[in-house]
């Protein structure tokens, strides 16, 4: 038998290479120049650099032998000639080359010194951005809903208030559920719920349907895609640059306003509010596949340590035995802690002065003063732009400065800007632009220092659930302001009282935050012996 390329001749069960460099006779190899003899499973090289005897290797760190540009495995199982495998005991039987090893995305990024935590942070930012855009939509929808259905501003504000309450109250429980079923699954589920709720609002015809869909369904879904999600991701995936990353994730709220509000206002003005709602639904649906494909729960899931962790061991991914009981236990521990109430109360005021008042009622207030809706939405977009820089800088500062002093300045400056707001309407759109820049710089800048203080008081391992309860206070404040400002507007025909009262509350919060961590109480001493995530 002769091969087509004439490289082998098979005769009497012997294999002879055409160039006579290798002869196989009686299952033994003999080189023509007698430099290599292989017989009875023993291999001897003349230069004694490689010896195989009794299936043991001596003085060798290679498993392959190169003979005239052909490879022979030391265990005699294969011969590689002309890029094809031939079994040594079955001449001329061609075998395919082994497949190239596959490389996972985390491994690919790791080889290029890029930590997968940045991918997780980017996906989290994207989800928070879309959720923020959806939460900012009520400011655009209030007036169109009034005009189409004749509902009062107080009625519409009630649905928004329920949305904000659920957004806050679900956060702590979402943190514990994430420990059980994972961040990725919770994010996919919540985005699907949000998309469903927003999409169905286009079919509503009664005010109770607005309360059910926007208040309950969308509020419940958005409770998972909340500030607590960013806190959990940062504390799991980052040991270094936590403040900076948290600042960027928090700034997603501002970016959501910047991206969505002008677009929503323009769509609602040209095509109606239903088309704007469908655009929000599409945005939520579009990011679900990316979250499902690339989001990971912990660094250990991809064989990594948190960014900046140079320890030698990788923490195993083991979900904690969290439950509703442990979430309520965390609240019980917090309620006996003085610092918890200072954090809870200050964040209550934070929510009242941002999402509840400005986020919900600034556009209607502008319309009351003759400013078109699209231009008013542009004001919130300006706030979002400056808040992105302000909150990111706040995260950077929270790694370096005393966080109590940062909060003092944030709340104090916000209070002054809110007191100025009612009078800025008298200076036309340019006066409001000054307010937008000044107020926007610290809209959500309070979040990074607050998270750091929560970690200092309750421990890094308890940040998720404890910050979840603090965020609940934030959203209760937002709900109170959203509904209260709507009622005041209905009764008095003006937002003046709401703006002034909110500014005064911010000044009170500025004083209160200076007391955080200054006077240990009985609750503080118990924290070291209580495991919140049991």
UniProtKB/TrEMBL annotation:
One of its GO terms (molecular function) is transmembrane transporter activity. The lineage of its organism: Bacteria, Bacillati, Cyanobacteriota, Cyanophyceae, Nostocales. The chain crosses the membrane at residues 113-134, 154-175, 187-206, 212-232, 244-265, 271-295, 340-364, 376-397, 418-441, 466-488, 495-517. It comes from the Bacteria. It is a multi-pass membrane protein. This is Major facilitator transporter. InterPro entries: MFS, MFS_dom, MFS_trans_sf, Proton-linked_MCT. SUPFAM superfamilies: MFS general substrate transporter (SSF103473). Residues 119-521 form the Major facilitator superfamily (MFS) profile domain.
């Amino acid at each position: 038998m002769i091969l087509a390329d004439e490289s082998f001749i098979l005769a009497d069960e012997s294999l002879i290479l055409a160039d006579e460099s290798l002869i196989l006779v009686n299952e033994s190899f003999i080189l023509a120049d007698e430099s290599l003899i292989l017989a009875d499973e023993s291999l001897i090289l003349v230069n004694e650099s490689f010896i195989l005897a009794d299936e043991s290797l001596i003085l060798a760190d290679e498993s392959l032998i190169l003979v005239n540009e052909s490879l022979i495995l030391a265990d005699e199982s294969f011969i590689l000639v002309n890029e094809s495998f031939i079994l040594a005991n079955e001449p001329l039987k061609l075998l395919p080359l082994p497949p190239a090893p596959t490389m996972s995305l985390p491994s690919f990024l790791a080889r290029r010194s890029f930590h997968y935590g940045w991918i997780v942070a980017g996906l989290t930012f994207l989800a928070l951005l879309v959720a923020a855009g959806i939460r900012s939509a009520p400011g655009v929808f209030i007036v169109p809903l009034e005009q189409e259905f004749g509902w009062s501003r107080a009625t519409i504000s009630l649905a928004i208030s329920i949305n904000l309450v659920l957004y806050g109250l679900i956060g702590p429980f979402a943190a514990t559920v994430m420990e059980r079923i994972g961040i990725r699954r919770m994010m996919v589920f919540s985005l699907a719920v949000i998309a469903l709720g927003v999409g169905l609002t286009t079919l509503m015809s009664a005010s109770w349907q607005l309360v059910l869909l926007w208040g309950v369904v969308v509020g419940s879904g958005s409770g998972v895609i909340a500030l607590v999600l960013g806190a959990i991701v940062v504390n799991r995936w980052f040991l270094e640059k936590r403040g900076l990353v948290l600042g960027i994730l928090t700034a997603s709220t501002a970016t959501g306003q910047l991206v969505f509000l002008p677009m929503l206002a323009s769509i609602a003005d040209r095509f109606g509010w239903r088309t704007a709602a469908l655009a929000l639904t599409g945005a939520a649906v579009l990011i679900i596949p990316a979250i499902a494909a690339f989001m990971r729960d912990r660094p250990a899931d991809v064989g990594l340590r948190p960014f900046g962790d140079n320890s030698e061991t990788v923490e195993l991914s083991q979900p904690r035995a969290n439950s509703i009981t442990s979430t309520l236990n965390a609240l019980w521990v917090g309620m006996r802690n003085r610092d918890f109430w200072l954090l809870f109360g200050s964040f209550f005021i934070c929510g009242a002065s941002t999402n509840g008042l400005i986020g919900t009622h600034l556009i209607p207030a502008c319309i009351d003063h003759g400013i078109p809706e699209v231009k008013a939405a542009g004001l919130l977009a300006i706030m979002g732009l400056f808040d992105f820089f302000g909150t990111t800088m706040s995260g950077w500062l929270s790694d370096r400065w005393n966080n109590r002093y940062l909060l003092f300045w944030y709340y104090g400056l916000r209070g002054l800007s809110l007191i100025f707001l009612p009078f800025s309407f008298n200076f036309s759109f340019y006066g409001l632009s000054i307010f937008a820049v000044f107020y926007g710089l610290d809209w959500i800048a309070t979040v990074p220092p607050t998270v750091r203080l929560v970690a200092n008081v309750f421990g890094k391992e308890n940040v998720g659930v404890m910050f979840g309860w603090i965020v609940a206070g934030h959203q209760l404040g937002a709900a109170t302001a959203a509904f209260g400002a709507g009622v005041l507007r209905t009764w008095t025909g003006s937002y003046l009282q709401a703006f002034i009262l909110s500014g005064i509350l911010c000044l009170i919060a500025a004083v209160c935050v200076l007391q955080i961590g200054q006077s240990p109480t009985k609750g503080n001493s118990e924290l070291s012996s209580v495991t919140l995530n049991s």
